[in-house]
Amino acid sequence: MAGGRRGRWAFAVDLPSLDGHRRTMRRSGFATRTAAQAALGKVLEYERTGIVTDDKQTVAGYLTTWLHDKASTLKPTTTARYHDYIRKDLVPALGAIRLDALRHQHIALFIDNQLTAGRGPVTLRRCVATLSSALTDAVRHRRLALNPARYALVPRPPKYEPTCWSPSEAARFLRYCHDHDDPLTELFEVIIGTGLHKGEALALRWNDINLDDHVAFIRYTLSNINNTTPVLTTPKTKSSRAWIGLSDRVVAALRHQRLRQPGDDLVFHRLDGRPLRPEYVLRHFHQLTDAAGLPRIRVHDLRHFAATTMLNSRVPLAVISRAMRHSALSTTTEVYGHLLRHVAHDAADVITHALNEADVA
Predict the structure, then answer these.
(1) Pick from 276, 225, 231: which is nearest to 78 by CA?
(2) Residue limits of the Tyr recombinase domain (predicted)?
(3) CA distance 13 to 24
């Protein structure tokens, strides 16, 4: 411990390194002896508890290394999204800070600045979640004692309430597609008739479909890297990779699609065999919707249509959860709980019926 120029204090301490040699850590610029002692005490506490200290590693250096190591376990689309958050947002704002010196206050200020600049809460939450994931790994690998992003507060965006067509509107849309022999008619028949995600429908392969048995295995989903490069990846969750049943109407649509676009690979594709672009499907869907005089919705809302149609037809919730390939029944309840009013009425009616039966007896 020593006083430096201009009344500043510094410390130097020998620490073990991974190669077995000692290394000297020097830090300076502390305004008081007490501040220097506190910093030295923290370094020694880290050393005692097995946390690796590196006063030269910045947040930028750590995040870059972290993503490089993490990429092998992530989907290409996730890697691309993390890369954008790190390069465009996190490094410019926090990259110059030493990783050891990163505090909750730094992250709170980053969030406040982003919101002030008009950043959407959904994107910001994902950006901060990326940072928190990286810092959690830093804690797990004994690089940090605590994750300073763990309790960062980002405003929750308003919950999206899906807009669903009625069965008559969905039938009107499909009838319009058939009447105009639209090339994507069969794609929309499949999505509406099965509740598949758009990416899952676009990734369907003939080898995973058995039309005679009325079943298909969902093995892939089509995603875009940086909204430009379509890639086939595994579905979102393990439960999403599963067999689904196909109705007679969906089977008929697939048989017609095989005549429309013969091939042995993708069911729905461009003329040259390459996958359809998801953004093209959305744009074309909106054009058809407008032409048919129907309220504009997302392609993903066709999946909600399938679920709500089953719910309104009193299909058991467990069956719907399995058909939608949700990871847990609670997921189905969370997404569609607002539509389960009839379940509450049915439960109340059962109790009333039991009491009335007992009273008569």
Answers:
(1) 225
(2) 160-351
(3) 6
Which residue matches tokens 């989907």? 75
| Residues with Cβ within 8 Å of residue 284, at least 6 apart in sequence | 184
DSSP 47-96: HHTT----TT-BHHHHHHHHHHHHGGGS-HHHHHHHHHIIIIIIHHHHTT
d(CA 345, CA 231): 46
Among left, alpha and beta (phi > 0; psi -120 to 50; other), residue 75 is beta
Residue 189's pLDDT is 97
Asked if 4 and 39 touch (Cβ cutoff 8 Å), the reply is no
- Whether 41 shows a pLDDT value over 90: the answer reads no
Q: Which residue has the tokens 């069911």?
A: 267
Domain boundary assignment for the chain: 2-48, 59-140, 167-341
Q: Write down the CATH superfamily of domain 59-140.
A: Tyrosine recombinase, N-terminal domain (1.10.150.130)
Residue 109: φ, ψ to 5° = -65, -40
3-state SS, residue 228? coil
How far is it, in rounded angstroms, from Cα 133 to Cα 94?
15
**Is the CB of residue 40 less than 8 Å from the CB of residue 197?**
no
Share of the chain above pLDDT 90, in %: 54
For residue 46, give every residue at least 6 positions away whose Cβ sits within 8 Å of its Cβ, in sequence order, or none. Answer: 52, 53, 145
One-letter identity of residue 108: A
Who's near 291: CB < 8 A, 6+ residues apart?
A: 176
Residue 44 confidence (pLDDT) above 80: no
pLDDT greater than 80 at residue 352? no
Q: Are 169 and 263 in contact (CB under 8 A)?
A: no
Taking CA atoms, 79 is separated from 6, 91, 147, in Å, by 47, 16, 21
CATH architecture of 167-341: Orthogonal Bundle (1.10)
pLDDT for 158-204, tens place per residue? 777 777 899 999 999 999 999 999 999 999 999 999 999 999 999 99
The closest alpha carbon to 225, from 214, 233, 217, 213, belongs to 233
